[in-house]
Amino acid sequence: MSKFIVIEGSEGVGKSTQISTITSFLDSRAIDYIVTREPGGTKFGESIRSIILDQDNNTDNLTDSLLFYASRYENFNKVILPSLNEGKVVICDRFHYSTLVYQGIVGKSEVVKKIHSIFDTIFSKSIDHVIYLHTDPEESFNRISRRSESDKFESRGLDYLKELSDAYDSVFSDVKHVIKLDTSGDKNITKKNLFKILSTIFTK
Question: pTM higher than 0.85 for the full model?
Fold first, then answer.
């Protein structure tokens, strides 16, 4: 029952919480899975992650995107594809849509958009579902403000969060197999709605 499920969304939308809910669901069904993340997934990718997310790192959007893609391609070839070939479910915390949104659309880089188009032909055919987590930017900002630490993307403020939200909505309006989940409200209701989504995915 191999499936590649990508979890996407802006900052402060509850990706970690919802991924925990997904793994609980898979455990309850005795479904074999792995969880990986972007950037990361491999030793190389984790080293890239520490560089990109550092608040003191002021690299250009194109530089960041090239680092993301280097990490992503390693993760895709050495972790994701082998796991899918073994029949496992792969849950990935972000994937190449994030780079299109953050560095391409919001970062206003036409080069990044072109790079996305190239790699989309490689990556998209392996993706079964994208679960798009959405929260009102104001709520995301409030959640981030309560954190003791934040990375360089989380610390860019409310206007930046609004831009991200609009960009994600725009991108996913044209992408198939995207399931949008509102995470703004009560956590129990969100969990219930996510379980319904998962039940549908894993009865197909």
Answer: yes
